[in-house]
Specification:
The chain contains 11 helices and 9 strands. By secondary structure, the chain is of the alpha/beta class. It is globular, with a radius of gyration of 19 Å.
């Protein structure tokens, strides 16, 4: 008998997010497209994540656990290793899908074999699920970008929001695993950039997910210049890969370094206005080094 593999693997790396995990799982189980599996990969959580996952009575939910805390990049790689779907959808344990997410994003990959990654519009919510002001979206309508053109924009600013992302499995196989050398933050951005060097990108204007902002998220807990350093590693790594394939590389390299310096100045301003003068000075120094490729 031939084994049936799901069309989509929804991969959920989870670390101490049991408060939100049940909602995330329910949002997948309510999808209009039901041909999926859910991979919950627990990064050695200290809360009741195992019990929350076990309480979901659906055979499509597959639970795994790291023996020790390994970080989000390694946990995403572990998700990939056990997933069986033709397409990979990425959902963090604190985010949510709207019911049409899997149907909308997989239809793009079905219809456009040149597209390797599709992302889309989303709403921002707080820790209680209340709607926050919308963040600016990269496009106002459906768009398919040439991968190389997308690379030139994406390296200046990450405009892809993870819970809206679906990737063709063969593209993940082609570019290799998430980098575990980037740090606590930004390894998803590094992956999206590498994917643009191998395939086109699509954006769907339908709102497909909810992105949660809260005090214990990775973005909120990556402080004291750590996120800026992670971003610097991303740019350094992907520029080394792209040197021989991106036209006018030297110009793009200067633009990318300038974009990092601008981020550093914004961090410096935020630190200064909150009274952290030492952190503000440190951010300025980071910006200087990044602008000069140091």
């Amino acid at each position: 008998m031939t084994a049936h593999y799901p069309k989509i693997s929804v991969c959920i790396p989870a670390c101490n997010c049991s408060r939100y995990l049940k909602q995330a799982l329910d949002s997948v189980l309510r999808q209009s497209l039901q041909d999926f599996e859910i991979i919950v990969y627990d990064d050695a959580s200290m809360d009741d994540t195992p019990q929350v996952a076990a309480a979901v009575q659906d055979r499509r939910v597959r639970y795994f656990r790291n023996p020790r805390n390994m970080g989000v990049a390694a946990t995403r790689n572990n998700c990939l290793a056990v997933s069986r779907g033709k397409y990979i959808a990425w959902l963090d344990a604190d985010d949510l899908y709207y019911p049409e997410m899997l149907a909308v994003q997989s239809a793009v990959l079905d219809q456009h074999p040149n597209v390797g990654l599709v992302h889309g519009a989303y709403h921002v919510i707080d820790h209680e699920g209340r709607r926050l002001p919308d963040w600016p979206l990269p496009f106002s309508s459906e768009v398919i970008e040439s991968g190389r053109e997308a690379f030139r924009e994406l390296i200046l600013s990450n405009y892809i929001t993870t819970p809206t992302v679906m990737v063709r499995r063969e593209c993940h196989d082609q570019v290799g695993p998430f980098s575990e050398k980037i740090g606590k933050s930004s390894s998803d951005w590094e992956m999206w950039l590498r994917l643009t060097l191998h395939a086109d990108l699509a954006f769907t204007s339908k709102v497909v997910a909810q992105y949660r902002q809260h005090n214990s998220s990775i973005s909120a807990t990556t402080r004291n210049g750590e996120r800026l350093r992670c971003d610097g590693r991303v740019v350094q790594h992907v520029l080394a890969i792209a040197r021989d394939v991106i036209p006018n590389f030297e110009i793009l390299q200067r633009q990318a370094r300038t974009a990092l310096a601008v981020k550093a100045l914004r961090d410096s301003n935020d630190a200064f206005t909150s009274g952290c003068r030492a952190a503000a000075l440190q951010a300025v120094m980071h910006g200087f080094r990044m602008r000069n490729g140091l």
